[in-house]
Amino acid sequence: MRMLVKFLCASVLLLLSALYLLGSVRHTAKTNPLPAEEYRLVSPLTYRYVLNQPQVCLSRSPFLVFLVPVAPQEAEARQAVRRTWGAPGRDTLTLFFLGLPKGALLSPLQRVLEKESQQHGDIIQMDFLDSYQNLTIKTMMMMKWLADHCPNSSYAMKVDSDIFVNVFYLIQRLRSSPRVGFITGSVIRDGSPRRDPSNKWYLSKELYLEDSFPPYLSGAGYVFSTDLAARISWASRFVRVIPLEDVYVGLCLRVLGVRPVYSYSLPRFRSLFEVRKLEYDRCTFAGLIIVNRFKPSELLQVNSVCQNI
């Protein structure tokens, strides 16, 4: 019995020490804002809207807003989303977020985007160059737009355009989910920076000194209560910009003291946010929220099969 008491006491001390250290990290992050020149990279004051839809939430408060980052040239992907899970619905709103194409406002593609925006009213574009390296900037602009223009929505989902989304199942689960301080998806708890300069996700020690990442959510798709949009935007004042947007959001969550929730099904504890590509199977897809890596034509095909069942 004495040994058990000692073990329990030691466990409590270890837990309290860990909580103290975690609190110290949070405090340091919150009280040391970035230098103005560094924060300028993600500051909403740095960029202006080229195309915007500020009126879409004036007369409604969507239950779920889909925030879809896409490249300017991905018109086919946008159209596939509009015809599948991103179609207009009573509970949902879908918006596409873009930067500028190469050649900026003088690009012929820009004129095509302007016509597309007039036709569909779902494109939001800001004046930074659209590139993989600028995905973090795009993500922060998405958060700021949601906080400014659709704060009365209940939830938002950052989701890539090559994803299959089971909207019915997602909304069903969200009906019983927390409305404040909630973010869920495929949580990565053992991530670490790649130090090989030839790696696509290379991160130098100068840019990120730590040897591991805090828990973060796969950028393929994650869902959060809308209150977090403004809070994540605020937290970006304290987090140095890195080109890994999903990790960056995780760093912002650490500043806020918000822990991402792993979304899984029972009894097998399978992730509901499947980041691999799977061949279509009715039973499998019915029990998942997302499945990854679909070409526009494949997304349309899967959607057609689902509707005919």
Automatic annotation (TrEMBL):
Protein's membrane topology: Single-pass type II membrane protein
GO biological process: one example: protein O-linked glycosylation
One Pfam assignment: Galactosyl_T
Keywords in alphabetical order: Glycoprotein, Glycosyltransferase, Golgi apparatus, Lipid metabolism, Membrane, Signal, Signal-anchor, Transferase, Transmembrane, Transmembrane helix
Metal-binding found in the keyword field: no
An annotated GO cellular component: Golgi membrane
Signal peptide (residue range): 1-23
Enzyme class: transferase
Pathway: Protein modification; protein glycosylation
Family, as annotated: Belongs to the glycosyltransferase 31 family.
Protein name: Hexosyltransferase
Species of origin: Poecilia reticulata
